[in-house]
């Protein structure tokens, strides 16, 4: 029995406890630093930029238009990557305040940076997936996705579990033309092709999973090493973090949707309207680049639960998977689960011909 | 002097008969409608449009791409004028520039309509924002702005000289004109690159896109110009030479011919092998999985384009300026469909994960589109009317305060 199989056999909750130390310890010095600077900043009563002046004013006066002032300041804040630590602290304080008021609970907005020596990687055992879609639901709950049901487009799910009928050979179709439906006979085609999905077909709701003649293929953002979505963004609001996760600064996205066109994995979603996020269902533990509530008109996607993984925890989908099909870890650590899988299993990536080099690997034993 | 120029220009444009005011009034109603749906879109979000995460570019983007072509098409006047010293063209070159200005402004309005967060567009403008050299959209914005600027300078400098009676300073004017001519090609090429550089969308991912874009642009743009010129000829004292319209007709005909040829090549290449990558085109031509919404659009565009090409080849249509209107309208409409429903939308069907889904432009989208077109015609009328006034010598520095004669009023009556 290999080490990897050993790990696979561990139960979800237990696994989380035992495997966590593989991740760098969440010492998080940046957080401490940010707190001090924010206090300083409040004391000094203002920064140079217009936005910070307005933000400060709002924070200090506790006036009725605090909300409006915060939004105003948010509107003029810089691209997250270009902010100084002080500005980041300020943006964070502003957001925490606004979200807390909006959702009626204490919301935190984490700004932890990427940990040195970490390159996050993901592996999924395609044989084990039973298509139960618990990862999808866990993801929606963890990452504050829009849950509207009234109008199409209000519901957003980052993970798709594609349900595909198994192809099969049939005697009566042995002499059918190929390509299907185009009548020009160039040999028989007894095989029913798989892989075509109609709109919304991945929202299937069977009584029992796995279904007899279906196979399942979960997909989400692959956090490409060469992400085409980053290349096409005209305002550089989406970018690759040092730990390999492709993130979006939701406050800087102009909603041009170029990235959606460029992504070969259909991993990005457009917020066509104000996200429907009931107060009681809102997850208050957020990260600036991660699961904080989004606004109308911007694009969003999976970010491997930065709010968790940067503190050494597993993404929500990994924890939720009842069969342990999902594995997550540090690719730079040769002893991490993912590295061991890459070394010992049969691994493939989707659409390898496009040279996007996903850090999401499919494997089977 | 500049103030005089502006005030004379404005006063001349404002004067017009009832025909003029009705025309502008109707356009104004559509513009108001546009403002309303723009407001809706920016309070409720893009949910009021038919766009979704699957098909996230629709009518707006299609119009944007098409209008970039129209803007580039203006070069078919400017180039013969300055490159071949075509006498008739020279006289009207400035009108082509006015058309280019209008088209670029319309493109920018479609950009505003298309963005999820138009309030954040300043993020693209340095030094406050970030300019990204790796993004084709960034380049597109840059070349478009440049083109607007070049045409504005060329067009209004020329009018200014006519107005004041000063000689044109060819030392810098000619180089700028030449830059503008080359620039015109760049704008539509970059727009083509914008979509053809996406391997995630196999239907767009081929190198024929830029040349196909240029040919369709040089068919649709001049077709519109011919129509405008015929209207001007019939309604104003401003005379446009037969030779101008003949030359433009030739350009439209052969660019249309090449465009049809390129489309045919693409169809053969894609459908002969009929790989999975041909699904987009196949959906467009015949439908997929019983979904066939775009099929009528595709075939109507084919009929319009091929029909127009054949009509253009018949001397009776080519030479009779009354009948000429028919193939011109046909090719304009055909290419509009080809760029929109025939290119942008099927690029998203099926999605990269093989999902087949359909797109329905909503009433909001139609109203917005109509409104932006109305706004375009509004500007075009103003620009053309003023320009014609100056070319006719009715607006002149030191002359009597401008009075709109018969010609001017009718010029605007469209
Ligand atoms: S999967 Fe798509 S969204 Fe994710 S990094 Fe790759 S291209 Fe970008
Ligand atoms: S939609 Fe936002 S993230 Fe995507 S390319 Fe446009 S600005 Fe960048």
Task: Please outline the helices and strands.
The complex is a heterodimer of chains A (365) and B (414).
Chain A: H1 3-8, H2 12-19, H3 29-44, H4 50-61, H5 66-75, H6 85-103, E1 108-110, E2 120-125, H7 134-142, E3 160-165, E4 197-198, E5 214-219, H8 228-232, E6 238-240, E7 246-248, H9 258-262, E8 269-270, E9 285-287, E10 299-300, H10 306-309, H11 316-320, E11 326-330, H12 337-344, E12 346-348, E13 360-364
Parallel strand pairs in A: 1-9, 2-13
Antiparallel strand pairs in A: 2-11, 3-5, 6-7, 8-10, 12-13
Helix pairs in contact in A: 3-6, 4-5, 4-6, 5-6
Chain B: H1 2-14, H2 18-44, H3 59-73, H4 75-83, H5 87-114, H6 136-164, H7 170-196, H8 209-235, H9 242-273, H10 279-286, H11 295-313, H12 315-319, H13 325-344, E1 355-356, H14 363-392, H15 406-413
Helix pairs in contact in B: 1-14, 2-14, 2-15, 3-5, 3-7, 3-8, 3-13, 4-5, 4-7, 5-6, 5-14, 6-7, 7-8, 8-9, 8-13, 9-11, 10-11, 11-13, 14-15
The complex binds iron/sulfur cluster (2 copies).
Residues 232-233, 235, 237-238, 248, 253-259, 299 of chain A line the site of one iron/sulfur cluster.
Question: What's this, in brief?
Answer:
The complex is a heterodimer of chains A (365) and B (414). Chain A is α+β, with helices and mostly antiparallel strands and 365 residues long.
Structure description:
The complex is a heterodimer of chains A (365) and B (414). In chain A, 29% of the residues lie in helices and 13% in strands. Chain A has twelve helices and 13 strands. Chain A has a four-stranded mixed β-sheet with strand order 11-2-13-12. In chain A, strands 1-9 form a two-stranded parallel ribbon. The longest helix of chain A is centred in the first third of the chain and has 19 residues. Chain A is globular, with a radius of gyration of 23 Å. The relative contact order of chain A is 0.19. In chain B, 72% of the residues lie in helices and 0% in strands. The longest helix of chain B is centred in the middle third of the chain and has 32 residues. Chain B starts with a helix and ends with a helix. The C terminus of chain B is likely disordered. The interface between A and B is large, with 54 and 50 residues. The site of one iron/sulfur cluster has 14 residues of chain A, from helix 9. One iron/sulfur cluster binds next to helix 8 of chain A.
